[in-house]
Amino acid sequence: MTEVSTARRSRITPEREAELYEAVLELLREVGYDALTMDAVAARTRSSKATLYRQWGGKAELVAKAVRHTKPGGLGFDEIDTGSLKGDLHALTMRSDDCTMEQNSALMRGLAMAVHGNPDLLRAFRAHLIEPETAEFRRVVQRAVDRGEVRPDNPAIEFMIHMMLGAFAARTMIDELPPTQAFLLSYIDAVVLPALGVAHD
């Protein structure tokens, strides 16, 4: 067991892992999840398919980890504590520029469709994206509760992740425009903060 763990760690450096994840996202944008194969990833990254399976187990895990890895600063929540909920949410939003948001929005639309027909992808997304991000948003809001900004019994707390992801997705569906920093900052001020009972200027 120790030999396997050591081999797994020694085969792929963090730099190589980042290259692999970027290649996976490029392929996803080109062909979509269903047409993406481990053979294609191996060819694009000059890796052996055996190495990919040994490291990630399968396509769903590889894709979910690639998406998680390329979020700006990881999830970035730990490094942000501005002293106010508005400041924290604005700082998180400013971590992605408009171009990156547009690329991520297109990618997530495609993956959202794929999730419905792929239980493995849904499980991987829950484990590596949805659950960690939900927990991080809860921590950000809990800090606001501890500071006295948000009442602990505010029912909107449970819908924080829904509000944030909803804005990202609905921008394209309703307005036929990509999400932008300006749109998300306005949305936070007009919708999220009032729902949480936070006054803003």
Describe this entry's structure for a reader.
This protein has 201 residues and is mostly helical. It is 72% helix and 0% strand. The chain is built from ten helices and no strands. Helix 6 (85-93) runs antiparallel to helix 10 (181-195).
Would you kindly provide a brief summary of this structure?
The protein is mainly alpha-helical. The protein has 10 helices and no strands.
Would you count the extended β strands for me?
0
Instruction: Tell me the fraction of residues in β-strands, as a range.
Output: under 5%
- Which runs of at least 5 residues are low in confidence (pLDDT < 50)? 1-10
What is the count of DSSP helices, taking H or I runs of 4+ residues?
A: 10
- Determine the mean pLDDT: 85
Report the end-to-end length measured between terminal Cα atoms: 57 Å
Structural class based on helices, strands and sheet pairing: mainly alpha
Radius of gyration: 19 Å
Question: What overall form do the CA principal axes indicate?
Answer: elongated
Classify the helix fraction into a percent range. over 70%
In sequence order, what are the helices and strands, one letter per element?
A: HHHHHHHHHH
Q: How is the biggest beta sheet arranged? A: none
List keywords for this structure.
201 residues; mainly alpha; 10 helices; 72% helix; elongated; disordered N terminus
Topology:
Elements: H1 2-11, H2 14-31, H3 38-45, H4 49-56, H5 59-69, H6 85-93, H7 98-117, H8 119-147, H9 160-175, H10 181-195
